[in-house]
């Protein structure tokens, strides 16, 4: 094995002669290992020839030398043997032309220096090959061996850089260098504020930055990059600055605490990596940070010994206006325009264009500022307008909702009269804001907000009832809104008389000549008969048209001839085109929670009707979420709460998900003038001990047809019995007929006939299940009485489907005490009771509401059931509801109740009761009871 120095850049190549290679291929395992290492070394060198390189080459050389068959240059020389490691030394030699060349050799000198890993030397004369010691590794040694000559004019600079930048190499220098170490010198912070223009064309902008340096004696060093030692050069002297890293970090932490972070790479200088900028965010926050830093932090830094220099390129300027001015000007009927400006040094500027891009970035004013923080708006260039939070907060809070519209040609906001009411809070702005507005809008706002500002109205002469004090206040409120052309939601608890207050409102308008157009009432089908009954009873002067049934289209052209027109939510979308052909004095939605989904056909149709006033009657203006409230007021006063998305962003999401009390209060204040709600507890002192109400219910077409079928069959049967046996001996037949009619009124499923199975309607049950969720939501405790245990079972199933907790007491109840306690303890707000099991002997003063599903028309029996709640120990008013189907035997017997109590009692006794029933019917009574539906 022969090694030859082929002079390739100081590298070494090993070559075997052919005969030797042939011997190795079949030689011992040691030779095979050497061959494998040589192949790996050659592969790393990327050469087809055998070369020594890297770690594989270094290991192969050691194995070759130990084999005793490795020769230097020629096999005629003695075989190489391991020797002792020799250190590598370097020194500079000056050439005849004055240049300096770096000479690198072992000590003692050798014939060759092999740049392997580890480096090795070969001394052919002594026949020795071993390690060349160089602490910085093979790559560093190779660089030294190939270092070019240093021209004489560069010798001093190279000497200083070697000394300062690679002191660990411990190399000699071409010329003599003096080294000075600066230690234990405190750093003096020097902060420079500067600006840079970045981008091109329309995207060009100026960014503002800060650069931190530290002074060590007379030497300055940048804060970044952080180096333990920084060198500076002066003539033939190198000054090595040992930096105080702890104090430098404290200075950087100080800047970070006021918002500075390292600027991105594209803003850094080529020779400086330490530029800082105010913590990125929106521009307004960055401007606020700069302003606070300049005003509050910089003076403190200077007092602490910092040097702060403002470069001419730093152009930030902050101005504070002398005054802000809000102007609201009427531009036509029911329209206004809003302008917002400010003055600086007597010059007027428009504030709206500056506010718009900033407001569009946020959902809430709190995201921009708080009442104790300033708002910053870019004016031009690097100039910023500084507005105090106390001054601008109420303006931003209101205008935040109004920027979802284009500006007028003058740059002002155009608002409808309803939207103008949203500006009510701006009048409370501080003294720094000048408030100028349309006098009519201001007067309306003042009236809406002022306690006792609504004048009292005399009750109408034609009202056949005496209004309770709270009902009088409701009339005053409805009249005030009507006079102002505004709508509202009358949201009193169920049973407090929303209908009678509305009728009184319409009667006042009629008696004073304002009701020259019809008022359209939209109600659930089950309440149409109730409206007709209450108009007949309390406001007979109001003419009524009911648009219901298959022939209703025949009356469309007579709408204008009536004071009140009644229709249903189900029919409203079908008849919308015909109804839109009229202009109404008022459109009134009863049970207005029906339009809680704004996208339903009935909600869309109701909004399409033109009226002077829109009213909503509901005990539950919001059942599940605030979106339902928005839908209601989108009908009543479109624009008051903004569009649906704006309302969700500004109110619904912050309130429902974030519990934002300030947004909640703002919403309450905005709705307060247009939402009148009184609970029965609030007006308890104005109520009698017991309030009785008859709730009439209209049968649907299928149930009405079923009732008529039963009535015709029963009438024929009764007439035949009377003809054969006489009236006195036909009582059982008469009672059976009336019982079946009564069951058909309650629910067709109670009638034991095959045809009852096909009737899918139960108007009373639907009416009851419309009432109960609202009552339970109001916190009422309710007793529901029925004579029929089967009917209570049907109600029970409906309550389960509605997920309303209940208790039940019938003759089949085994754990009577447990059922009673479940209601008394509050576990169940509804108590279903059969008259037979609970009509007497119970004390349930926890209840405040009694519902007679199928009233026992004998007043004494009915009173006994009601007295389960209305008795000694009751400390709250009791509401009593009687559900009566319109135009049926129930309504007719109700009319006979006072004068024929005994007859009514007999009618509703079961034929299998123990005592003998001898009712005294007359022929007229029979004709009345069995007359057709209607």
From TrEMBL:
One of its GO terms (molecular function) is hydrolase activity. The keyword Nucleotide-binding applies. Residues 479-639 form the Helicase ATP-binding domain. It is an enzyme of class 3 (hydrolase). Its EC number is 3.6.4.-. Residues 764-925 form the Helicase C-terminal domain. Signal peptide: none annotated. CDD domains: DEXQc_arch_SWI2_SNF2, SF2_C_SNF. It comes from the Bacteria. InterPro entries: Helicase_ATP-bd (IPR014001), Helicase_C-like (IPR001650), P-loop_NTPase (IPR027417), SNF2-like_sf (IPR038718), SNF2/RAD54-like_C (IPR049730), SNF2_N (IPR000330). Keywords: ATP-binding, Helicase, Hydrolase, Nucleotide-binding. The keyword Nucleotide-binding applies. Pfam families: Helicase_C, SNF2-rel_dom. This is DEAD/DEAH box helicase. It comes from Thiohalorhabdus methylotrophus.
